[in-house]
Design goal:
Distance between the termini: 17 Å
Order of helices and strands: HHEHEHH
Oligomer: single chain
Helix content: 40-55%
Number of domains: 1
Shape: elongated
Structural class: mainly alpha
Mean pLDDT: 93
């Protein structure tokens, strides 16, 4: 699981995939699988998790598209003071269905923790 929406990773996947194709000796020495295949694909969720704490609705939509709802969990930044004043307020304010909001607010975390 990666904090802060996966940091720069979601926005460098194109570069990583490009390197996989044109410079495999640098990035694909022990892995012949295209790095993009580790992200969401149709109904298949990504193979790792990110949190939602990106403070930007467009960035969060990108995370949902790249990783799938099942792999984006509510982020709070606790115990640090840079989180939302009320955890989840960006998710609540977005034009998402109740089911999608529930998945982001607690569903993904419950699944990750097997609760």
């Amino acid at each position: 699981a990666f904090a802060h929406g996966g940091g720069a990773f979601p926005f460098t996947i194109g570069r990583i995939e490009h390197a996989f194709h044109v410079r495999p000796e640098l990035v694909a020495i022990d892995n012949r699988t295209n790095p993009r295949s580790y992200l969401a694909n149709g109904k298949t969720a990504a193979r790792f998790y990110v949190d939602s704490l990106v403070h930007d609705a467009n960035a969060l939509r990108t995370l949902i598209r790249l990783f799938g709802l099942q792999r984006v969990a509510l982020g709070s930044d606790y115990p640090f003071p840079l989180g939302e004043m009320k955890a989840g307020q960006l998710i609540e304010a977005m034009n998402l269905s109740d089911k999608e909001k529930e998945q982001l607010l607690y569903g993904t975390a419950r699944e990750f923790l097997a609760l």
